[in-house]
């Protein structure tokens, strides 16, 4: 077979396969070739440039940004959502929440025990966007205490609503996020209703968390579950830049409070590291340092954030 005849056959196979959508077996039958010949020819078409495959990125999808963050911080998956150049907090939370709901819809598996952090407007937005699913989750568990002024209402609604949508059990944590002392914390952990839930933390295989700044959010302030100004200054002096489940860390992701001295009743940073999949929802330029610290500490596996924040994480701002 001459080279021009060979090229002609390759082009015919490529046209039938890529443009006309024929299966390899049908092409083999049509051209009286073996299926292995067709398969090898398709491979040659790609190698020799007869066929070039292009991935067209839509305007509001940011694969480049996502890949750069994944590579820089070693995180398994990053999802960057589109927002306008100067988005409001509400717009950011709504966009991230919607994307997080879609991620959960597509990644949830039968038997998942889902941990959910109580104090995040973005997580609340995710729950608002969730749809019912055929997947049978094992349950939704509150992984951070929520008792306090308006606190129990927020924590209960989030956890129970998500469990209702997923048609699974809800496990509430009837304790404050931050106890007044270690003695009070140990006393609470000694009660059956608290210890039974806390003991389930190690069984959580999918945790959904927010990332907080040193300065508590309005939601957290209204709940009463936050440190006072004196304690916050102490944390700042130790280099704290952010928190997950109210466990504070520095820019390198190192905890600034020894676990033995931590009065928080919630899933620990160590438990988050050991969890199979931790999905963090966080956006806004004021959270860049907190997000980078969480990424550096290897506490999260999936980050869902907005475009402006993603650019700032990479130093574009």
Describe the 3D structure:
With 317 residues, the chain is α/β, with parallel strands linked by helices. The chain has 2 domains: 3-47, Arc Repressor Mutant, subunit A (Orthogonal Bundle); 63-313, Rossmann fold (3-Layer(aba) Sandwich). Helices cover 46% and strands 12% of the residues. It is built from 14 helices and 10 strands. It has helices at residues 3-19, 24-31, 35-47, 63-73, 89-107, 121-129, 151-166, 182-189, 192-198, 218-223, 229-237, 269-274, 288-296, 307-313, and strands at residues 77-81, 113-116, 139-142, 169-171, 206-210, 212-213, 242-244, 247-249, 277-281, 302-306. The strands form 2 sheets. It has a 7-stranded parallel beta sheet with strand order 1-10-9-5-2-3-4. The protein has a 3-stranded antiparallel beta sheet with strand order 6-7-8, covered by helices on one side. Helix 2 (24-31) packs across helix 3, helix 5 packs across helix 6 and helix 13 crosses helix 14. It is elongated and about 85 Å long. The N and C termini lie far apart (59 Å). 40% of the residues are buried. The mean pLDDT is 90. This is Transcriptional regulator. Residues 64-314 form the Sugar-binding domain.
What is the mean pLDDT?
90
What number of domains? 2
What is the tally of helical segments?
14
- Evaluate the radius of gyration: 25 Å
How are the strands of the biggest sheet laid out side by side? Answer: 1-10-9-5-2-3-4
Q: What level of helicity do the residues show? A: 40-55%
Named CATH architecture of the largest domain: 3-Layer(aba) Sandwich
Q: How many β-strand stretches?
A: 10
Morphology call: elongated
C-alpha termini separation: 59 Å
Highest CATH level, the class of the largest domain: Alpha Beta
Strand content: 5-15%
Q: Stretches where pLDDT falls below 50 for ≥5 residues?
A: none
């Amino acid at each position: 077979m001459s080279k021009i005849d060979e090229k002609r056959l390759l082009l015919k196979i490529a046209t039938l396969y890529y443009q006309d959508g024929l299966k390899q077996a049908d092409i083999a039958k049509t051209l009286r070739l073996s299926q292995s010949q067709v398969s090898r020819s398709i491979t040659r078409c790609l190698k020799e440039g007869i066929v070039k495959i292009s991935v067209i990125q839509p305007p509001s999808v940011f694969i480049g940004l996502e890949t750069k963050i994944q590579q820089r911080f070693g995180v398994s998956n990053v999802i960057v959502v589109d927002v306008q150049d100067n988005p409001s907090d509400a717009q950011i939370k709504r966009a991230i929440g919607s994307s997080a709901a879609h991620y959960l819809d597509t990644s949830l598996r039968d038997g998942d025990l889902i941990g959910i952090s109580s104090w995040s407007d973005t997580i609340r937005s995710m729950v608002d966007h969730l749809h019912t699913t055929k997947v049978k989750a094992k349950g939704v568990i509150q992984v951070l205490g929520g008792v306090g002024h308006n606190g129990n209402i927020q924590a209960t609604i989030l956890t129970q609503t998500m469990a209702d949508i997923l048609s699974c059990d809800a496990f509430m944590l009837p304790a404050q996020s931050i106890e007044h002392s270690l003695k009070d914390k140990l006393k609470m952990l000694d009660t059956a209703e608290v210890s039974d839930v806390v003991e389930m933390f190690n069984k959580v295989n999918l945790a959904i968390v927010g990332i907080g700044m040193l300065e508590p959010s309005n939601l957290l302030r209204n709940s009463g579950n936050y440190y006072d100004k004196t304690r916050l200054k102490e944390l700042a002096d130790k280099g704290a830049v952010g928190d997950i489940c109210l466990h504070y860390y520095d820019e390198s992701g190192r905890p600034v409070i020894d676990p033995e001295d931590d009065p928080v009743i919630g899933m620990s940073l160590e438990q988050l590291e050991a969890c199979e999949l931790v999905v963090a929802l966080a956006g806004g330029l004021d959270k860049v340092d907190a997000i980078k610290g969480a990424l550096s500490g290897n506490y999260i596996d999936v980050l869902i954030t907005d475009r402006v924040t993603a650019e700032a994480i990479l130093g574009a701002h």
